[in-house]
Amino acid sequence: MRRRHFLATLVAAGAAVTLVAGPQVSKATAESNQLYIYRVSAATDSAAQRLVNEGFDVLENRSGTSLFVLGDDATATKLKAAGFAPAIAERLKPTGWQPPSTRLVPDAATPAAAPAAAPIDETYYGGYHTVRAQYAHLDKVAADRPNLATVVDYGDSYLKTRDPATGYDLKALCLTRKQSGDCALTPSARKPRFLLMTQIHAREIVTGDISWRFIDHLANGYGANAQVTALLDSTEVWVVPIVNPDGVDLVQQGGNRPYLQRKNLNGIGCANPPTSTSQPGVDLNRNTSTRWGTSGVSSSQCSQTYPGAGPDSEPETRAIERLFRQLYADQRGPNDSDAAPATTRGAMISIHSYAGMNLFPWGWSTKHSANDAALRVMAAQMSQYNGYRYGQPGEILYNASGTSDDWSYGELGIASFTIEVASCGSFTPAYSCTSTDFAKNLPALMYVAGKAKAPYQP
Ligand SMILES: [Zn+2]
Prior knowledge:
Elements: H1 2-12, H2 23-32, E1 36-41, H3 45-53, E2 57-63, E3 66-71, H4 73-81, E4 87-91, E5 123-124, E6 128-129, H5 131-144, E7 149-156, H6 158-162, E8 169-175, E9 193-198, H7 206-221, H8 226-234, E10 236-240, H9 245-252, H10 315-327, E11 347-353, E12 357-359, H11 372-386, E13 389-391, H12 393-396, H13 404-412, E14 415-421, H14 433-450
Helix pairs in contact: 5-7, 7-14, 11-14
The structure holds zinc ion.
Zinc ion is lined by residues 60, 201, 204, 285, 352.
């Protein structure tokens, strides 16, 4: 019923998205609408902002003075008309993977869905775990290791807020050697906290499975691996594997074919079939109240960086901000120039793809935060582990406002980072790349988690 309701919701809302799955459809779409990644010279932030403002799908990658734009032949024409000189950097393979064969209840369109895989085994595109599999995984870890793991339902996705029969719960896992009072939703917790969040951008598919592997590394390593044991004895590790489950649901079904859904699903009615500059939803990593709507955003509601109707307008944004406020005390003053004190506890990482970068606040400006020195030292250490470049977004990528890490640092003072994993240099890497990216980034995750007790002290 989930899928039928999901489709019905889209249709009822005037959906302009094609969700029909099948080899004929994907083949035809792929042939008639070849996608490219264009390399575009944008040496200055004003050029980057102009690309975004004009609604182009600017990817999270930079090479020297070049940025990268996803699109088709029409996109190249528009780029030229806007004064840019696009060069083809990559011709993308069709992304028409088949949707998972199982459903909560097989619907009329897929009567032969049985035998159903167990929910935890449900995958797409060669192994990527679906939302349902991710949630089954959280439940299994908590059931297998009740002394270590607790599942928390922290809210509802946009679709679920509209109709409880659709959409998803929003779920987190708390991992620690549990003692009385641990994993409680109060900022006065005994242990410091580290939070990892992934797949806020649905199409950054490698990131959710990094959370999966991180959870297994911790849950299976307790008592066997000294570093893991020490971490879970002293710290609460929170993992939100899928920040944007509605968007991931669409991605795992193969949509928004031939593009891939980045945003949540609030706001449907963009062009059908979708184009690179016409995608439904709100960019959840532009939607927070920190300098909302000021940089790296497009006011066009069908662009990939549409920040929403207002700050914190989206249920997914409000829910994760509420979770953060339940986990961390506000330890920083309200002014841009206020420093979080040396006694600050708490750290977070949000993982995106696919540049190979360790980023830290501020993202809305190249102005340094008052904790810049300590954040920069931590980012440099992360780079020692994963080999990525490090800096503020405006220093090595482009400015962006309303992001998760600007919000968690700005509102609460906790040490906050975005890792753009390298994703094997691919927009849609093969599943085997999750092993590569996890291995490369695990030491950086363990390092920042280990600093949660006092991130601004040497
Ligand atoms: Zn992203």
